[in-house]
């Protein structure tokens, strides 16, 4: 007798009987929920279809694999390059920072002919942590030298997770804007400084600067808000007495 192959028509529509462990229980019809587990021919057909898909799309799949490999290799290469740049930048800015600490600001920014200045460190190692830190030093040096626009550019490029240093950078940008007779912009940066991880040690001073800058901008309502925040959020701060006096002054000016 020839062996009849399994087909969907011959078996799938025919309910299968399940033999119970209880001889007295009636047999039940059963339609498998997972036909691939029950039907080896169907499983083989699915495998053939998968192989055919891979064969027909081999170039596309190889291309995708190459993209993944290149992305991983590129990411690892960038990580190594950035670490190398950071080490070189740290070494390059060592002398510049020494000049900065000695208040030799010109040499700190421009270099001394043998060692790079902060300006070159920022431009050559800007993508590294060293370059980021050099932006802060360069911004402070430029501000002290009266180069207010340059100071803003350097300090805006700087970013830090340290809440004290980042808030300080915002405040310095505000100082530069105030020197450029831009009190509204100055007040906005003082506000950013005060609200960046707000704390009772430094936020009151930044709020006081914000209030005075808003008064210069004739935004008396904004000044009152800044002073009032010191009195309500930081009543024990050393700036609270000044804030009370300045608030009264701003209220008088606001009523005119």
From TrEMBL:
It comes from the Bacteria. The chain crosses the membrane at residues 60-81. Keywords: Membrane, TPR repeat, Transmembrane, Transmembrane helix. Pfam families: TPR_16, TPR_6. TPR repeats lie at residues 167-200. Coiled coil: none annotated. PROSITE patterns: TPR. Signal peptide: none annotated. SUPFAM superfamilies: TPR-like (SSF48452). The keyword Isomerase does not apply. The keyword Amino-acid biosynthesis does not apply. This is Tetratricopeptide repeat protein. It comes from Hymenobacter terrestris. The lineage of its organism: Bacteria, Pseudomonadati, Bacteroidota, Cytophagia, Cytophagales.
């Amino acid at each position: 007798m020839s062996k009849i192959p399994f087909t969907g028509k011959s078996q799938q529509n025919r309910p299968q009987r399940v033999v119970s462990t209880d001889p007295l229980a009636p047999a039940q019809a059963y339609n498998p929920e997972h036909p691939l587990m029950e039907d080896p021919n169907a499983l083989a057909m699915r495998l053939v279809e998968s192989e055919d898909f891979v064969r027909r799309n081999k170039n596309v799949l190889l291309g995708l694999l190459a993209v993944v490999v290149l992305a991983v290799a590129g990411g690892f290469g960038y990580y190594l390059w950035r670490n190398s740049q950071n080490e070189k930048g740290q070494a390059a800015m060592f002398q510049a920072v020494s000049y900065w600490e000695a208040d030799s600001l010109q040499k700190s920014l421009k270099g001394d002919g043998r060692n790079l200045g902060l300006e070159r460190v920022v431009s050559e190692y800007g993508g590294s942590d060293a370059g980021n830190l050099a932006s802060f030093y360069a911004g402070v040096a430029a501000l002290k030298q009266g180069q207010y626009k340059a100071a803003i550019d350097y300090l805006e490029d700087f970013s830090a997770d340290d809440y004290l240093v980042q808030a300080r950078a915002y405040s310095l940008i505000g100082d530069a804007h105030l020197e450029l007779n831009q009190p509204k912009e100055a007040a906005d940066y003082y506000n950013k400084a005060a609200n960046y991880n707000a704390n009772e040690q430094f936020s009151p001073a930044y709020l006081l600067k914000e209030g005075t800058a808003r008064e210069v901008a004739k935004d008396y309502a904004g000044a009152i808000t800044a002073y009032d925040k010191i009195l309500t959020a930081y009543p024990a701060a050393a700036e609270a007495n000044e804030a009370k006096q300045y608030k009264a002054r701003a209220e008088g000016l606001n009523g005119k």
